[in-house]
């Protein structure tokens, strides 16, 4: 016995009885016509469904692309007007936070690599990303690992739980509130249990007073207070959430230069 | 510190590609750091056959200890097998991939054993594509550094590489575009990385001598140097140039295509295909060219662009190639073309105003001086390797 994977639509119409073969052939033709018409309609219907799905997929692609561009645009453009350096006291506070980082530490908007360099000197394995090409070039010439990339784009590429530390700074101050929080969440997702996150920022008051007109006009957001970051880290279950602040507007549990703060927390093990 | 390179071919006669990069970096490390550097490689010089040209055993080349292993030869029908394999890559199993990797070679059990037993602080694999890297890297993963030398090609999508590439403790890229490509395909964004590139090694050469050797008189010429291969875009370049000249009968511009011939370009009286040339002739040609053209859509770095700028010549590159476009965009040392019309416009502009080429060439030279001199490359590379080695011993 042979088996076949195909369905053979032809039926046997032969008959030993006179006229019956003819009747069978007529019936087969009528049924064949009927089946063909139904099959054509099913095919047309499926084609319409496929086209509709394709249109839907194209639309979803466009929306995703638009959203992705929208999400990354502030990081690209705003980084170009962000200040390059953090005050030494902020650098020292970040270095102190990252002493306990159980693995590589990433620094967003690393500028010319001052923070990367300070962390390396302290024995921390650090690298950064930066969108300003001239800053990247300065860092690379100094043999520092600062890559030409946006913070959010880089964090999307980092495998989950791959980092021991994350320092979010720089253009963060100028993002919309949702984008600032998204950056924190992306950093947390990249951290291993026991990993340390630190947000180094200007206070809103200091930013209002010091930012250029261009930065103030074009920025969709402004810095959070240290208390807000402390709250955001606490509700995300981070441990040892600590604030170092230079002014009395926040909770002064450690000192950095006036108008700046560093908030850090540890991902639970 | 002791460093070991694993690379499929090694020797002064390999003058381009990943293996050239491996040799020059190994030699620079020996000369500038005093580190002990050894190379584990095959006896072959031809990557299409892996035929043994060198004797098996240990020798020393420019201060680098070279340990060679006899490998099996590649089957004559490999290209046919390979095309069929990549025609249906998605449905290939890991076993199928392993068979392709072995068929591509170069294969030597003794070589893989030597990699496993190697006592170097770091074992550096260069490039990703061949059997010794794909089979050997994971055996020394805690000490492994990878120079992928990757461009956007089918083998980069082998499922096998999803465990090999991320196993390396450090990655060395030749361009930003290579880094972006590898980061998008493999979970390595958190690994230590450096974008390094390679330096040029210019030799004393005279343009007139090169012209005499090739018999091209005093006519201005565009130049391509490298493998003459349709995959490198040389066939299309010759075709476009012949068309360009046919449309401009009074133009004197010539095209010189120099390098080992895999696919003979279409014949034309204004296109001079020289075959392989020696270094002196190559540098003479580079110095005398109206512009250097790299028509290849797939380059991981393109050392010859760096050489062209070092020789004071501007460049034209294929817009499809991410690496050469990156060089041109960052340096301002040339232009990219994406169609025949753009090619024509770029060449016409050079012919009409030679000062344009001179300005671009200066910009290219500044780019080379900034990023691709051997002392600065070696210093950044040594710092990077030291940091990776420190991490591996933590």
Question: How is this structure best summarized?
Answer:
The complex is a heterodimer of chains A (269) and B (394). By secondary structure, chain A is α/β, with parallel strands linked by helices.
Order of strands, main sheet of chain A, comes to 3-2-1-4-5-7-6
Q: Specify the overall morphology of chain A.
A: elongated
Low-confidence stretches of chain A: 248-252
Judged by helices, strands and strand pairing, the structural class of chain B is: alpha/beta
Q: Radius of gyration of chain A over alpha carbons?
A: 31 Å
Radius of gyration of chain B, whole Å: 21 Å
- In what range is the share of β-strand residues of chain B? 15-25%
Kindly state the percentage of residues in helix of chain A. Answer: 40-55%
How would you describe what is shown here?
The complex is a heterodimer of chains A (269) and B (394). Chain A is α/β, with parallel strands linked by helices and 269 residues long. Chain A has nine helices and seven strands, in the order H-H-E-H-E-H-E-H-E-H-E-H-H-H-E-E. Chain A has a seven-stranded mixed sheet, sandwiched between helices. In chain A, strand 2 (126-130), helix 4 (133-141) and strand 3 (146-148) form a beta-alpha-beta unit. The radius of gyration of chain A is 31 Å and the shape is elongated. The relative contact order of chain A is 0.11. The model of chain A is unreliable at 248-252 (pLDDT under 50). By secondary structure, chain B is α/β, with parallel strands linked by helices. In chain B, 43% of the residues lie in helices and 16% in strands. In chain B, strand 6, helix 6 (161-167) and strand 7 (170-173) form a beta-alpha-beta unit. In chain B, helix 11 (303-310) packs across helix 14 (354-371). The longest helix of chain B has 20 residues, at 374-393. The mean pLDDT of chain B is 92. Chains A and B meet through helix 4 of A and helix 7, strand 8 and helix 15 of B.
